[in-house]
Amino acid sequence: MVDKIKIKRAIVSVSDKTGVVEFARGLKSFDVEILSTGGTAKVLRDAGIDVVEVSDYTGFPEMMEGRLKTLHPKISGGILADRRKEEHMRQIEEAGIEPIDLVCVNLYPFAATIAKPDVTLDEAIENIDIGGPTMIRAAAKNFEGVAVVVDSSWYARIIDEMQANDGAISWDTRFALCREAFKHTAQYDSTIAQYLAAKDEFPEVLTYTFEKIMDTRYGENPHQKAAYYRQAGAPSDALVNFRQVHGKELSYNNILDMDSAWGLVCEFDDPACAIIKHNNPCGCAIGLDLADAYQKAYESDTVSAFGGIVALNQMVDKATAEKIAQIFIEVVIAPGFDQEALDVLTKKADIRLIDTGGVTSKSYFGRDLRRVDGGILVQGFDNIEEPAANWRVVSEAHPTEGQWKDMAFAWKVAKHVKSNAIIYVKDQATVGIGAGQMSRVDSTWLGARKGGDKVKGAVVASDAFFPFRDGLDAAVEAGAACIVEPGGSIRDDEVIAAANEHGIPLVFTGKRHFRH
After folding, report:
1. Which of 130, 279, 322, 327 is buried deepest, with most CB atoms within 10 A?
2. How far apart are CA 450 and CA 441, in angstroms?
């Protein structure tokens, strides 16, 4: 173990130049020779800092638009030579290679590049750094004799330590920097692999990179620790990039429910509101305006809405804000809040306000991942287009124009309710929701009990087929006047016959929407 190493020569070559001038000045105060490349060298020279161009140091010019500049034995050898081994030091001396004691490198912005909506494969490939990772890995491997800095947050700490130790850096610091460096290159390579693997539906090896956004107070329960991470390459319209404009920090459960609420409300173009509780909708509606949509969604289940998550698909105005403020709501997520709405809602200290920055659609970025013991399940997202024109009326009775509208609305809601899901809808608003029951009949009765008299004359959507006629019979007994379901049961004929006995329209969509 080498306790302290004095920094005499450094290579500084960074894509993100935040703080690099101040860092280089700090190094120069200890008479450190600085090697640099291209844009970094220009920035430092323009700031009056003397640097040696890598091409001058190696005697080999940069070429291929900068693709080749640091891949040279005078750079790699100066970094890799183990100072503890006389033979290493003899060999670099004979080769005319000087030791490099500090490597300050960060990499081409690959993650930022692929996050652009219209990025091409050529653009992405050109932003794969080659020389940078090589230098970082070499320096991290040889941390006993070299300090490697990949994050500008370390700059001030490095200079402070050098000031306290006559220009030297301790073993503990070098080892900490080594860990940071390998984490950095692992994340970089993983992001590249993740991007390229996206070209395959299910690649043989699946690699993902996530960066921590925040620690949450706890997980689903107080005894569970938890944190929130952003996936590399996540587009700007993804939930992880939305901005909190008011309220205390988000909890693990808040974020889960926000994702569900946002996914549901984004199904609609007209003014819409979704209220989520424990990852299930307790109310959803389209309205004449946003305030009307919220009121109808709230009236779907006024008990469950307390402490819920509200998602809205238009900028929140004062009228809507005043309605929301009448009860305790955990989170409101929307494309924006006008000043009058903010004046109303920010008076409530506990409410969290999430601004999507004008985004009104769910990104459905990447793949749908579910953790299981020792592995993950991977699938595509359940976001197919389903025009009602492709549905099939299988009963003798046919839906009215109003029932068609309610069926289309109910079917969108059904996708976002835990299976078994039964949705009662009137006038494009939920009036009863049965969620997550082991029996579809139980879900039917639960939705009816929640809706009470409001379900009389409602359209009912079932996320999967009725395996027996008893589910349809229960819905009609509760007051259903029209039913939409996927069809596909071996007993479809019995279910269709039941609909005809009751004289109600029955429509098959041909698609199922389990949400486990």
Report:
1. 279
2. 14
Number of domains comprising the chain: 3
Same-domain pairing of 182 and 256: no
- pTM of the predicted protein model: 0.80
Which pair of structure tokens corresponds to residue 143? 């941390």
Residue 72 identity: H
CB 41 within 8 A of CB 65: no
d(CA 132, CA 38): 13
350 and 244 in a common domain: yes
Catalytically active residues, by annotation: 141, 278
Query: pLDDT digits over 140-176, tens only?
Result: 988 888 999 998 888 999 999 998 898 888 889 999 9
Beta partners for 228?
214
Is 231 contained in some domain?
A: no
Question: Does residue 131 carry a pLDDT above 90?
Answer: no
Cα(395)–Cα(328) distance, rounded to whole angstroms?
Answer: 44
Domain that holds residue 68: 4-197
CATH number, domain of 462, equals 3.40.140.20
pLDDT confidence band for 475 (50 / 70 / 90): very high
Amino acid in the structure at residue 156 = A
Token pair 């924006």 is at which residue? 336
Residue 291 falls inside a structural domain: yes
Take residue 348 and report the two structure tokens written for it: 């409530």
